[in-house]
Amino acid sequence: MFDLVFLGTAAAVPSAERGLPALLVAKGSSRFLIDCGEGTQRQLMRAGLGFRGLAHVLLTHAHLDHVLGLAGLLATRDLYRVDGTIEIVGSDETLAFVRRYLADTLGPEREGGYRLRAASPGPVLVRQGWRLDAFAVAHRGTESLGYRFQDEPRRPLISERLDALGVPAGPERAMLARGRAVALPDGRNIVPEMVHGVPVPGAVIAIVGDTEEIAGLVEPVRGADALVIEATFLERDAALARARGHLTAAAAARLARDAEIGELLLTHISGRYAPEEILTEAARHFPNVRVVADFDRISVSARINVSS
User: Fold this and answer.
1) Angle, nearest 10°, between helix axes 249-258 and 275-283?
2) I want to staple 251 with a disulfide (CB 3.0 to 4.6 A). Which of 41, 97, 103, 247 is the partner?
3) What's the CA gap between 213 and 276, in Å, rounded?
4) Residue 201 clears pLDDT 50, i.e. is over it
5) What was the pLDDT predicted at 196?
6) Other C-beta atoms within 10 Å of 127: how many?
């Protein structure tokens, strides 16, 4: 399961209700900030999240509304003497801008402050039980990235088999649940395959910043339990959306439909539209959709398919 806290859901210009793009993703004790628009540090405080435990910032692209809050966030962490180094991840192009920006405002990379790590489509981070991958996103000629968090499938233990084999409750069963064989006191060796059931899919979330097309995103986001993506325009302004390299709500919903998404979470909301208009347009193409707001909290679990 992954927990999402939306910290900024506006498009390029903030409003009284919506801050600039920022999303916190939590997996256990690991916390990731996706983009860091101006004012993100205050949004973290208002959400009661603070700065501790935040070790990664994943940037989708280098446009100012997605990165300008980095210097303030890092400077405040330094003033508060928050331990740990923040790793800032993005494409080569994104990090080239961020490197100049942070060097001019805070100084160069250093331990206890920040370090930069370039990413390209493919694996970004692999942890026990889950992984993080990046994929390419088209947006106005930039080197943009989207991110996919994915739990590994798990194979639940079958209690009847455990009982029949005489596996005691406690550490032995915990080891089998982690995929490790155990030796019983009578000398028998129990391997996980003997007591595991049918694999259960893990939770998947896909996150896209700004984008101008959906055809290239169908496979990278396919099957996600939740898709976070922009909906900056409505179809009546589709020509303007194309000119500015953004999606309409209808296009985002068609992507969710074609990629068999569980839930569509629309963000990057322009003040020119009422959220109800955006929701209505998207729901014509994909029913399980919501327009998120600042400080919305959503937990994403794997969908369970029940065969008839």
Assistant:
1) 40
2) 247
3) 23
4) yes
5) 87
6) 11
How many Å apart are CA 119 and CA 123, to the nearest integer?
A: 8
Core vs surface per residue 64-87: b (16+ CB within 10 A) or e: ebbbbbbbbbbeebeeeebeeebe
Architecture of domain 2-153+201-299: 4-Layer Sandwich (3.60)
Structure tokens belonging to residue 130: 């889950």
Active site members: 65
CA distance 110 to 156: 43
Beta carbons of 269 and 232 less than 8 angstroms apart:
yes
What is the 8-class DSSP label of residue 153? P
Q: Give dist(CA 156, CA 149) in Å, integer.
A: 21
Q: What is the pLDDT of residues 28-68, one digit of tens each?
A: 999 999 999 999 999 999 999 999 899 999 999 999 999 99
Residue 75's nearest CA partner among 37, 107, 118 is 107
CATH code 3.60.15.10 region(s) in the chain: 2-153+201-299
CB 283: neighbour CB atoms within 10 A?
16
pLDDT per position as a tens digit, 88-142: 999 999 999 999 999 999 999 999 999 999 999 999 999 988 999 999 999 999 9
